[in-house]
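@channel anyone free to eyeball this complex?
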Amino acid sequence: MLIVMQQGVSEEDIARVIARIQAMGLIAHPIPGSSRTAIGITGNKGPLSPAEFEILPGVKTAIPVTQPFILVSREARREDTQITIAGRKIGAGHLAIIAGPCAVESVEQTLAVAHAVKSAGAHFLRGGAFKPRTSPYSFQGLEKEGLKILARAREETGLPIITEALDTESIEMVAEFADVIQIGARNMQNFPLLKKAGRCRRPVLLKRGMSATIEELLMSAEYIASEGNGGIFLCERGIRSFSTHTRNTLDLSAVPAVKAASHLPIIVDPSHGTGMRSMVAPLARAAVAVGADGLMIEVHDNPERALSDGPQALLPAQFEALMKDIRAIAEIVGLEV
Amino acid sequence: MLIVMQQGVSEEDIARVIARIQAMGLIAHPIPGSSRTAIGITGNKGPLSPAEFEILPGVKTAIPVTQPFILVSREARREDTQITIAGRKIGAGHLAIIAGPCAVESVEQTLAVAHAVKSAGAHFLRGGAFKPRTSPYSFQGLEKEGLKILARAREETGLPIITEALDTESIEMVAEFADVIQIGARNMQNFPLLKKAGRCRRPVLLKRGMSATIEELLMSAEYIASEGNGGIFLCERGIRSFSTHTRNTLDLSAVPAVKAASHLPIIVDPSHGTGMRSMVAPLARAAVAVGADGLMIEVHDNPERALSDGPQALLPAQFEALMKDIRAIAEIVGLEV
Amino acid sequence: MLIVMQQGVSEEDIARVIARIQAMGLIAHPIPGSSRTAIGITGNKGPLSPAEFEILPGVKTAIPVTQPFILVSREARREDTQITIAGRKIGAGHLAIIAGPCAVESVEQTLAVAHAVKSAGAHFLRGGAFKPRTSPYSFQGLEKEGLKILARAREETGLPIITEALDTESIEMVAEFADVIQIGARNMQNFPLLKKAGRCRRPVLLKRGMSATIEELLMSAEYIASEGNGGIFLCERGIRSFSTHTRNTLDLSAVPAVKAASHLPIIVDPSHGTGMRSMVAPLARAAVAVGADGLMIEVHDNPERALSDGPQALLPAQFEALMKDIRAIAEIVGLEV
Amino acid sequence: MLIVMQQGVSEEDIARVIARIQAMGLIAHPIPGSSRTAIGITGNKGPLSPAEFEILPGVKTAIPVTQPFILVSREARREDTQITIAGRKIGAGHLAIIAGPCAVESVEQTLAVAHAVKSAGAHFLRGGAFKPRTSPYSFQGLEKEGLKILARAREETGLPIITEALDTESIEMVAEFADVIQIGARNMQNFPLLKKAGRCRRPVLLKRGMSATIEELLMSAEYIASEGNGGIFLCERGIRSFSTHTRNTLDLSAVPAVKAASHLPIIVDPSHGTGMRSMVAPLARAAVAVGADGLMIEVHDNPERALSDGPQALLPAQFEALMKDIRAIAEIVGLEV
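replying in thread with the prediction:
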């Protein structure tokens, strides 16, 4: 259930509603907005009665939420959520450009790419230290060493870093180093990991699973939010269809679909979404035109030698050229880059 | 096999190669280009020997084509094909805007929509006179009456008309009235219909089937081309995936994929591709940004009363607003509208 | 709407209801059953009033049908439909075995396979004279010559023949030769072809399209039934999914799903459903175990030389071995072979 | 690389090969078979030279493995693997019946179902103590309490228990109580969990992910095997397709596909594979007919009150009736129940 407070309500009124919720053995999640405050209620086993809350002072209405997600729903918050990370903004009119290598391979490679993407205009550095690989015999990432390299790249370039956490045991270590914790597509329904990410004091980038519906994606975001972490942004990275001309089928309709159902920002990863270097730029342009809140793009200074996903990485010069188109299209659709 | 002629070769040389091909009981398909002429050979049962053709004067090289399509392949023609219909250009830098109602319902509705889309800047009028409907009890189109209404709308607005042909019996009647014959998604592998479209003297708009690969789409185009009709443009209109938040999953990667493999233009239909009015504009913008050669958009002056696919039709005012964004994005990606 | 008549109603009562329906400008479709007669009504634009029919003598009840298909629905007929073709029964407890080559290639090949499958216990001979091929350059079938060969094989073996019709122009010729007209997967939504099949006086085998839902399959069957042809049986032949270890993904759940929603028989084609010889026997066994009303299996005496789909054809000896398992499993699930 | 030893080779020869592999800094995985012993080599960065191993005494041949999985491949072991758990056999001719509730809800419910499935002939009891639920607000399982209830059910019925582990933190606790650790479909590519399962001294049931190819499934099994745990059996439980008449699309072709590529047993879960009670029995029969090594079936004594997946659970009496068909079909396909 969602309690919508009247405009200009007092802190006292809000506190009274929260106290009542807690007295019933339930959990209250205040969701502030610029025009109104809502309070999500979770923890109930059966339906709640709106009347019980509507009699409280300052309550405008109590809405039984019909969707299975509450806190991340558009009903809970009418305005788009904006997340600020080390001064960079994502969402609500701000386009965030995240770029970097698929995997952190060495200090040299990471710094070279970090400087290149920064000078081309990226706002965040991405790079995997823990890599989920289909084969147990493939390169699995530099792990803690990789996190340290990323931290050094941040120090040198000032770019906040985004890197993936693979399990409940190492997520704390990742949270220590990273500015944003990434939950990958294969872990979108790794519920213990989502819960733990919800307890970390770091924003979370949650990627859509390969065969996840938009509702399932938002339910997974709700797992994070229900643990008290509202700093979530989502990522469309291609779904699995019968189609084989790309590695995945990038579903750009996910962007308006998420925006209709939720207040969370959503970005697009055209690198994994296509798996082919020649496709990254056109689909990146399309992602901005469709209204995405950000892009996540793999860049490598020597893709032929990349230890992971080389064929989809842009060269720094290609990324720089792409940034020009991105800026121009962003302006047309009213986004600040 | 593909015979590539030397640059600046004489008509005589070309004629000699064609004669040789015909003398072998095979079919020669000259494919002129600005920088070179190629001659496709079809009709052979087994592989042909390049040497047999390379000794002829004017022949640069004979390439055994590895893909199953020849005439529509990028190997056959390096430049993008451009189709000109009643003065409007599609492809090779020209963005074509096709708009109109899903179905022709009446003179009034058709004229109203035709005038509206024309004044907003559309280049072509679309509208179905023969409608493929899942249910035998749904409105099946006005048939010949509908074709006459379209012809009248053309007369009044000057817009060339694009309308669907459903079978080998009625395609000739459609060809009599229409400027472009549309082959719908459900008929993409209706091979007798493709062959007959190949024998019509009209450009053909071929829509991708709901579960067709890019290769299958190009093979179907090859059916049309192999009958002598090279005026083909393709249309991505959404594929069927597990995803249910849209009616179909619009696969914008089909645009660069087709352009890599073929010289034919490809447009995008965001109306069928999403099935939801609110999604049409964002996906239309994305389609232009990804590099499509055109858009096909359903517009209705009274969507609530539409006899077919009302929920996905834009209102004239929405279409007009969209045209502004389209023009701006087209400029960025180097397309003339 | 569906008019359900009382048990033991007179012919006169039925005639009176039909007359009333026709007087309203609608179409009446009597659907006899062993325990009750129903009369389907089609042709109405809006909803009909049950009361208008329930006052007529002999009418038990008038049911507004909620599904979009009426005549083929389980509501219209509670008993399973059984089709009898030249003495062979399909459906309602009778398992029909249809076997033969993918394409009719020559008299010798067709007769050899026909004799082989007959001696192994097949009830019908299949074989394509008109072949829908992805490539315009592939073997397209012997056409009329092929139909004549099939007719000769029937003469020699006594097996009724099932063969595909590809378009509205040639379907009459097919109907002249064939005992059953097959509508292939690619034509499942070729509505003009379905309508014409509905006007042929031949049973129709309708294959599920590669990306068709069960509802769409039944709507296509309704097209045939609404033209007056109730001799329809359906065929699951594999759907298109992301999965690539088989040519298509055979969806055996389609069998109980169709049986729940419709009274029509449904058979399974494990040859196209898997595309691999080694998979045909296990999936054929599974199809019988799941409750299919028949099997359609490709058999070739020399698969390496087959002009179409050789890799999925069983050798005659393999087919014979499979028939033993089929008979044993059929007995367990209560089917007569 | 795979080293295949000569028949009747001595232990000494095997030890020598292993020592050589280890001396090169690589990992040796002996894979004994009845007719031959193979030794898988993992840990190499680049390709190895066969010659280096073929000169060793007792080595028949060294095969560079072309597939990305080695230890679980059919090349590594020609015979079907059979797993024995508390006296019950799975694989290589033995059909294992696993039944029980979706979730452990109470002592009473678990014991009632356990006794019912045992008396109907099940060999294993299934039941979730940790439940992966799409919504954070759904019942998440009784956790440790649930494991204790399962242990008590085993004590009372003698049935070994199979239950799911959700993360690397709780898997040890699960391994303490369970006879078989289940890795669910959502965790098929949770690589840290797979590695930890590989280090547990318990057989592992690995379910196919909703959009996993057979190769990906086998790669995930390879993760477990490469950690030294060869007691793996796989489970087909339905894939995600466009088709909506069932919750998932049960892909029975996965059974022969896995058997062709791997020596591991594979079972089928028709309960999750269809999500509908009425579909479970027909698809269970089909799974046995296709050659599966086992079935996993949800049974509940009061499905309407089930806390999870009630609509797909069989009633005990339905399960008992199904067991009769299963035994009869198993006999036909040569399986011992």
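from a first look: The radius of gyration of chain A is 21 Å.
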